[in-house]
Amino acid sequence: MSTAIEIRKQLEKTRTPFEVDLYLPLIEKINRLKKEKNAVLLVHHYQLPEIYHGVADFRGDSLGLSREAGKVKCERIVFCGVYFMAETAKLLNPQCKVLIPDPEAGCSLSESITVEDVRRLKKQYPGVPVVCYVNTTAAIKAESDVCCTSSNAAKIVERLPGNEAILIPDAYLAQNVAAQTKKKVYYHEGRCMVHEQFTVEDVAAFRKQHVGVRVMAHPECRPDVVQASDFSGSTSAMIDFVRKDPAKKWMLITECGMSDNVRPLFPDREFVGPCTMCPHMKKITLEKILRSLEEDVFEVTLPEEIVLPARRAVERMLISCEM
Q1: Which one of 2, 90, 120, 124 is separated from 53 by 20 to 30 angstroms, measured CA to CA?
Q2: Which residues, including other chains, have CB under 8 Å from residue 288's CB and lie 6 or more apart?
Q3: What's this model's pTM, rounded to 2 decimal places?
Q4: CA distance 10 to 297
Q5: Residues 78, 133, 180, 317: is their CA dihedral positive or negative?
Q6: pLDDT band at 183, cuts 50/70/90?
Q7: Looking at residue 323, what is its pLDDT?
Q8: Is 310 domain-assigned?
Q9: What is the rounded distance in angstroms from the CA atom of residue 48 to the CA atom of residue 279?
Q10: Is residue 223 part of a domain?
Q11: From the CB of residue 279, how many other CB atoms can be counted at a distance below 10 Å?
């Protein structure tokens, strides 16, 4: 864990000194309580900088955090992300108490599909394997054959038997995957409220304004936006790409908390672009994390009948990643 001096240096790259002074006492309390309560904090790349740099034990995208959730040895996992992520952690570490600081931290994409929608697709395309994006509830995962993330969706679809696949719930992710495979990909008309806002005109405007900028788009963006970009990948893949590429100016077409959090990691790079926030991710705050640890709230529980099939779908995803 970083020292208070190191945390201050990181935070002052994106926060005012006054804000940092407010955050540090909360950060200190949370880090102390983590040790006392044998808790591990899993933090998504879209979280606020004071959480990302101040209290995280592990930072990552959905795939990376899923892997860590299944490996950590602790009494409590505090998931700093949205609810479906905390459910996935519970699936992979059922003996551990999983807490989410705000149970109202949902996801427009996961809420775009119901169990009935999945069953209707399965009836419409009998025998076609169902791949569900990790941005789904445990109930949707239980209806699926295998889970995927934005970083491995194409690979998982390609490895399935047959020449067809159902990929749910994100229509744009499914269309982007379809462009990478010869298989027929059926999809549900789901959207991410953040990524659907970006347009190809945005990309063109920023290239004109910032000559030489390197553009990276999340696979939940429209296919024409992905095609107009220099790279498309998960949030972790974006970080890896910046690390390997010498370009000095970057536009990340994703939730703008991502730029806030990677800026301190690459002080010699400039990150430009529109700021589009996920209101659900931003429900998690230091104050709520502290309360979650102090009062042991809010615990994630799952109906017993969906646990085994949902866990199987997630475990198949993780096995596929290792192949």
Answers
A1: 90
A2: 101, 102
A3: 0.92
A4: 29
A5: positive
A6: very high
A7: 59
A8: no
A9: 11
A10: yes
A11: 11
